[in-house]
Amino acid sequence: MKFEVFLAPSLVLLPAFLLLGTGFSTYVPCVQKDFGHGSIVCVCNDTYCDEFVDEEPSLLAGHYVVYTSTKDGQRFNESVNEVKREAVNDQVDVKLQINASVHFQTIFGFGGAFTDAATLNIFNLSEALQQKVFDAYFSKNGIGYTVGRVPIASCDFSTRVYSYDDHEGDFKLEKFQLTAEDLILKIPAIKRAKETSKQEIRLFASPWAAPAWMKTNKKMQNPGKLIGNVSGEYYKTWANYFIRFLQEYEKNGVKFWGLTVENEPNAGLSPSYAFQCMGFTAELERDFIKKDLGPALVAHGYKDVKLMMLDDQRLFVTYWANVILGDPEAKKYVSGIGVHWYMDPWVPPAFLDDTHSKFPDVFILSTEACAGYGYDGHGVSLGNWERGEEYGHYIMQDLNHWSVGWTDWNLVLNMQGGPNWVKNFVDSPIIADFENMVIYKQPTFYHMGHFSRFVEPGSVRIFSKADRETSLEFIAFLTPSNTRVLVVLNRQPKAFTIQVSEASIGDIVWHIPPRSIQIFKWNF
């Protein structure tokens, strides 16, 4: 299939300024393709991609703008409207009260992971299409990612198992060196993203496993711990492995904002885990932080790198926080808690609330999520709106319970959901179709975008409340430019009419389409 079959030539030639007043005043429309999975994907080739073409309009006093994406095919459809000065209570299904003077947590940002698989897929695209990917995620015309996660050595989303020092007994790490995956894929991709973005992209790195010779099972994959005891030569060497990673990336022009101690440390204790992992109990991670890793970071000039504990499921947050942050020596090195989403359907967000209430000075960051990993099916499902709704629901749930941001997993996967050496195929917001040399933007891309583009770093979650029980999901923010941003998610097959009120401003009365996510922005 050739791209020209479904792309109207007149659309390509339409000047951006003529789009003003058409309903797409700042967004070039999506070229739709339906794969029969419930909704559409947006298709991009070398010469055309849906995108924002200008900054959002400057709103006149008494006006607001709405961006809408729906299961039936709308993507960032824009509408500018006037605030009503008299409430119309008898015409609405639910009233939302906003109070911008009541503040909660400050938002850190949103983003995805520069895995080997993602960066390999990006660089296997044509040069023009590569830039379309970077623009889609990082440019002012895209959805404004400001967070990037980077695996330390290999993970399941690599094409092989590797470490940076496979020389047994090299406790001084004299033979430590980055690999082709870093030098040819991850580092160039990070630099392209930074060149594309006009915002700071904060990077954090996560290890999956130490070199095989340092683990009890003598393999990077499958369960095992570091050999010996905390403060022994293996633990000291592993702490210095982090230092060498930070130093080598710096030599190549990439600095990190943060680190996690270990990706999914509980997986490394599970007998059924098939890929790279390394086990830590909460007590072991606490002792490693306070005796080895924390002091090593300070001693080598990295005391300002934000160290995050856990980096695992919500289920473990409360206990692990009590063990690690309850220890003053460990806590002084820890800035945040990394949380994954895979158990979220079965674990209530009260775990996050309880942890925040005990340790309010330690941030909670959602560090990994993806669709297509299991209960909703494996691998890629092109145009699956329910997967987008899962993103919208759990992003909103995490943020409403003190998370400061949300990090997706792979930026780009292939049509199978890889590559992945252990065949652990999943889904991603952008899928690369190499046969037709196009990319497909999934519903998850747009659900992410309704947060990442409009809720910029430094925004603060503010008070929002419904006047009655409702199936609508919502959350509100105050941005650094004093703009109010309200996100509303409707996962129901029916429409609603809402009234949004803020003291001394007036009321927004709006129709919420079925199966939709919307952003409301106003500034008075």
User: Mean of residue pLDDT?
Assistant: 93
User: Strand arrangement, largest sheet?
Assistant: 6-5-26-23-22-21-7-24-25
- Give the class from helix and strand content and strand pairing: alpha/beta
Give the termini distance in whole angstroms: 49 Å
Main sheet record: 9 strands, mixed
Percentage beta strand: 25-35%
Q: Helical stretch count?
A: 11
Coarse shape: globular
Low-confidence stretches: 1-25
Number of strands: 26
Helix coverage percent of residues? 10-25%
Radius of gyration: 23 Å
What would you note in describing this structure?
This protein is 24% helix and 27% strand. The protein has 11 helices and 26 strands. With 524 residues, it is an alpha/beta fold. The chain has helices at 9-13, 116-123, 127-138, 180-196, 233-251, 282-299, 317-325, 328-331, 350-358, 385-399, 443-452; strands at 27-28, 32-34, 40-44, 51-52, 63-70, 77-82, 94-106, 109-113, 147-152, 202-207, 258-260, 306-313, 336-340, 363-368, 373-374, 377-378, 403-410, 412-414, 430-433, 438-441, 460-466, 473-478, 484-490, 496-502, 506-512, 516-522. The strands form 5 sheets. Strands 6-5-26-23-22-21-7-24-25 form a 9-stranded mixed β-sheet, covered by helices on one side. Strands 8-9-10-11-12-13-14-17 form an 8-stranded parallel beta barrel, surrounded by 5 helices. A 5-stranded mixed β-sheet has the order 2-3-20-19-18. Helix 6 (282-299) packs across helix 7 and helix 10 (385-399) packs parallel to helix 11. The model is unreliable at 1-25 (pLDDT under 50).
